[in-house]
Specification:
Layout (H helix, E strand, L loop, with lengths): L11 H8 L2 H14 L2 H9 L9 H8 L2 H14 L3 H9 L7
Length: 98
């Protein structure tokens, strides 16, 4: 369920970020750490993109809620092991062109 996506490619983490609800995001993150492997968290959860190519970090920025952005950034720092992953896959991810 944690890795499932809706018809727009959003994970539950994307949706909770869109809603701007940090409490839900924190609970979802706790569940992910309990149930998912590190690889799944990195590639299918934290770095997952929706159909427009947006990561959760994009969505967090869109909401304008600094507390959500800070938490997503901290998760990336703890889970993404290599600096290259953080820069290339997290910070430099771009929206897809239609």
């Amino acid at each position: 369920m944690l890795l499932a996506t809706d018809k727009e490619g959003n994970t539950v983490l994307h949706v909770s970020a869109y809603k701007g609800n940090l409490d839900i995001m924190l609970k979802v993150w706790d569940w992910a750490e309990e149930k998912l492997t590190t690889e799944e968290i990195n590639n299918k959860f934290l770095l997952a993109t929706d159909k427009e190519g947006r990561t959760v970090f994009h969505v967090a920025g869109y909401t304008g809620k600094l507390d959500i952005m800070v938490n997503v950034w901290e998760w990336a720092e703890t889970k993404l092991r290599r600096e290259e992953e953080i820069i290339n896959k997290f910070l430099l991810a771009t929206n897809k062109e239609e």
